[in-house]
Amino acid sequence: MKQPIFFRPVFQERIWGGTKLRDVYGYDIPSERTGECWAISAHPNGQSVVRSGEWAGMLLGQLWQEHRELFGYYDSDRFPLLTKIIDANDDLSVQVHPDDEYASNYEKGEWGKTECWYVIDCEEGAEIVFGHRAKTKEELADMMKREQWDQLLQRVQVKAGDFFYVPSGTVHALCSGLLILETQQNSDTTYRVYDYGRRDRDGKPRELHVEKALDVITVPHVQQSIEPTVVKMAGATVTTWVRSDYFTVSKWEVHPRLEMERIQPFLLLSVMAGTGAIATEEGEWPLQKGDHLLLPYQFGPFRITGHVQLIASQP
């Protein structure tokens, strides 16, 4: 029987983290500075564990290696995506990610990182750093050396429900007061550009990666425009924000029923709000806020019922 695969997330403590992952989603977080929930992850730095069912207790990476039929024999040597929820209780470092070619050459075969953000919730006046104003690499290097951050960095005010596509090479940062769902390539490669002079637990300045950052930052900044596709049905609305070489990401708003066809190659779902159920002719499984699951190859046709909001992604 084809069935959804639910996961137990992994939590990462961060200097800028807080308690919203517990307060909003009820997760058992490790500390008051928990910054990230790696909800669906096969990365060696934090792997999700199958929560129940036939493969209970198995790491997602192991499932990927041993049961490729569940993923439609998708052509990749590693699981392609990583889903996170990020609690930015304080400003994250200003940073940039390399593309696949640079990461492969300089990060021991790691992938690059293109990502996207869905703003789950935010404080009034919350903002992000998104891009820069330098016109040439020389101007960029000079402004960074002179620490002219206010003149260099572009800031954008955000609100709940906003979506941002963040290609590799984009200077960016989440600022304080944001709760974000991030869909990204399966990579943990980050080059810090600026970190507000913060120190780590040992009292040492946090490491910056200025030379590598200068190598990979896109100059001039390329503004990303999001043109969502909205499909309204009798009991649901599906908004597709991005279809890229790396992932397709959509929001499913179910009130009270959504019918979907069979899944190819596989689909990741994160329940952002509400309660409901997912069902096929073979069974029904409850859904609640904070659940993260994978629908395997050829799952369905299926239906989702209830009053529930989900983020869906697939390679």
Notes on the protein architecture:
This protein has 315 residues and is mainly β. It has two domains: 5-216, Jelly Rolls (Sandwich); 229-314, Jelly Rolls (Sandwich), CATH 2.60.120. The protein has helices at 20-25, 60-66, 100-106, 137-145, 149-152, 210-216; strands spanning 5-8, 10-18, 34-40, 42-43, 46-47, 49-50, 81-88, 94-96, 115-122, 127-132, 153-157, 163-166, 172-174, 178-185, 191-194, 229-232, 236-243, 248-254, 257-260, 267-279, 284-288, 292-295, 302-314. The model has no long low-confidence stretch (mean pLDDT 97).
Question: What distinguishing features does this structure have?
Answer:
315 residues, mainly beta, Jelly Rolls, 2 domains, six-stranded antiparallel sheet, 6 helices, globular
Briefly summarize what is shown.
The chain has 315 residues and is mostly beta strands. The protein contains six helices and 23 strands.
Please write out the topology:
Blueprint: E1 5-8, E2 10-18, H1 20-25, E3 34-40, E4 42-43, E5 46-47, E6 49-50, H2 60-66, E7 81-88, E8 94-96, H3 100-106, E9 115-122, E10 127-132, H4 137-145, H5 149-152, E11 153-157, E12 163-166, E13 172-174, E14 178-185, E15 191-194, H6 210-216, E16 229-232, E17 236-243, E18 248-254, E19 257-260, E20 267-279, E21 284-288, E22 292-295, E23 302-314
Antiparallel strand pairs: 1-6, 1-22, 2-3, 3-7, 4-5, 7-14, 8-15, 9-12, 9-14, 10-11, 10-13, 16-17, 17-18, 18-23, 19-23, 20-21, 20-22, 20-23
